[in-house]
Amino acid sequence: MINVDIPGFGLLELEHFVTDFSGTLSEDGRVLPGVREKLNELSNNLRIHVLTSDTFGRAKYELEGVSCVLQVLEGEGHVLQKERYVMELGANTVVALGNGNNDTRMLKAAGLGISVCLVEGCSTEALAASRIFVRSPIDAIDLLLNPKRLIATLRV
After folding, report:
1. What's the burial of 75, exposed, middle or buried (CB within 10 Å: 0-12/13-18/19+)?
2. Which of 57, 55, 137, 143 is nearest to 99 (CA)?
């Protein structure tokens, strides 16, 4: 669990890290260097959940050895499936990370939504649904591992 009281923003009591895979943790289906290790480090504080449409069909292989729950989404309506997943965990206890249109409702519902921009880009809808924007998933994880960075970014 990560607890951080942010002046003017409020208390975050985080238990879950819910993240997209394609374009968020990976580029062209391959996890970025250093992400596996950072996820495992973060798993000492938060339960890691990876929700993905698995565009490249590699998520299970790429996340081998990572302490996480992998949920490959089926059918249609992935934006609603991701939001529902966050709600079922208890939205206020979730920090969510994503980059695409199908992440918007998950980012908005979470106690803390973070958008990321890799080579795939970041939709303006995902950006608008987030509280924080970062340039890499490692930056997002480091915010959580070093909560004073969250205070510096979100305090009023």
Report:
1. exposed
2. 137
From the number of C-beta atoms within 10 Å of its C-beta (0-12, 13-18, 19+), residue 79 rates as: middle
Which pairs from 10-15 meet CB under 8 Å and 24+ separation?
12/95, 12/111, 12/112, 12/150, 13/92, 13/93, 13/111, 14/46, 14/93, 14/94, 14/95, 14/111, 14/112, 14/144, 15/46, 15/47, 15/89, 15/90, 15/93, 15/94
Superfamily designation of domain 13-154 = HAD superfamily/HAD-like (3.40.50.1000)
Task: Transcribe 77-140 into DSSP letters.
Answer: -HHHHHHHHHHHH-GGGEEEEE-SGGGHHHHHHSSEEEEE-BTTB--HHHHHT-SEEESSHHHH
Task: Tell whether pTM > 0.90.
Answer: yes
Residues 6+ apart with CB under 8 A from 57: 29
pLDDT tens digits, one per residue of 28-84: 999 999 999 999 999 999 999 999 999 899 999 999 999 999 999 998 999 999 999
